[in-house]
Design brief:
This protein is of the alpha+beta class and 298 residues long. 53% of the residues lie in helices and 16% in strands. The protein is built from 14 helices and six strands. It has helices at 8-15, 17-28, 31-45, 56-80, 95-99, 101-106, 109-115, 120-131, 136-143, 147-164, 172-188, 191-197, 222-233, 287-291; strands at residues 198-207, 219-220, 240-247, 250-257, 260-270, 273-280. Strands 2-1-6-5-4-3 form a six-stranded mixed sheet. Helix 2 runs parallel beside helix 4 (56-80).
């Protein structure tokens, strides 16, 4: 992108870039695809007559939403052919994201898995309305529906998500304590330590993308998860280290084998115990964790 610091189109785009990225990422679950959508948005934005635009933010969100919808529909076949479980691409996020409880939940691994069960239009409407509080008229313009239809879609999507939404998470301090206990137990391969910090009905979802080993289906239950982890780690001679991180606005661990990143574990903590483990091992989804600085999403 050419640098024109005094160009009004560039200034507007840069001012809203974090918002546009978050809209695209929440719709697509892929940072790489979100970046492509932003590039497409930019190419359309620079052709717009700004004198005819009353609300630049709304106009940019509309372009981004339409491009994200086009890409999401095109990605459907790719998702259906994905090997094993699919998880969103993990993002290292700045501390202020974790402090914004609503934003942190909206980009959490747990909720984004639920968003995958929505249709593309339902997902767009839910993200714009529930996460960014965009007006129904603006959403209608973005998804090419009437405001009345958008209200119905929003109600249906909200009801669908609420029925599957994880329960309310604990305080940040309690979450950090649980994650620290989990980290120590993972590094020392301590079965009792793992059982002490995992909820009895904990769910593990692992994503290897057919490139790295991962469970093809979710593993439910603390004892099954411990057996799965210890069975796999017992075959390793490498030293396991786990570095605490904030990923998608929530506590996480970056796992390394002999100092080489193996994957990212997004974690859900409730009532002082870990109820969800989302382990991304697909190398294609780890490039930003290895190279990017933490993001502010608004």
């Amino acid at each position: 992108m050419t640098d024109h610091s005094t160009d009004p189109a560039t200034e507007a785009f840069v001012a809203h870039r974090s918002l546009l990225f978050t809209v695209a990422y929440e719709m697509l679950g892929s940072a790489a695809d979100a970046e492509d959508v932003l590039q497409e948005t930019w190419l359309r934005w620079v052709k717009v007559d700004l004198g005819q635009v009353d609300d630049q933010r709304a106009y940019l969100v509309r372009i981004t939403t339409r491009q994200s919808l086009n890409r999401l529909r095109a990605m459907k076949r790719r998702r259906e052919a994905y090997v094993g479980q699919w998880l969103p691409e993990p993002l290292l996020t700045a501390p202020d994201v974790a402090e914004d409880i609503e934003l942190a939940e909206s980009v959490s691994m747990a909720l984004m898995i639920v968003l995958e069960t929505l249709s593309p239009t339902e997902r767009a409407v839910f993200v714009l309305r529930e996460v960014f509080d965009v007006g129904y008229d603006e959403i209608a313009a973005a998804v090419d529906k009437s405001p009345a239809a958008v209200r119905q879609i929003a109600h249906r999507a909200r009801r669908h998500v609420d029925a599957r939404r994880p329960r309310k998470a604990v305080s940040p301090s309690a979450a950090r304590a649980a994650v620290e206990s989990f980290r120590r137990a993972l590094e020392t391969r301590d079965p009792q330590g793992l059982l002490d910090v995992l909820a009895p009905d904990v769910v593990l979802v692992s994503d290897g993308g057919g490139v790295k080993g991962a469970a093809l289906r979710p593993i439910i239950g603390a004892e099954k998860l411990v057996r799965f982890y210890l069975g796999g780690s017992s075959k390793l001679e490498a030293t396991i280290t786990c570095s605490p991180a904030v990923v998608n606005g929530n506590p996480a661990l970056v796992l390394s084998l002999d100092a080489e990143i193996d994957g990212v574990m997004g974690l859900r903590v409730e009532d002082g115990r870990i109820t969800g483990v989302y382990y991304v091992r697909n190398p294609e989804k780890l490039t930003r964790v290895e190279t990017e600085t933490p993001l502010t999403l608004r």
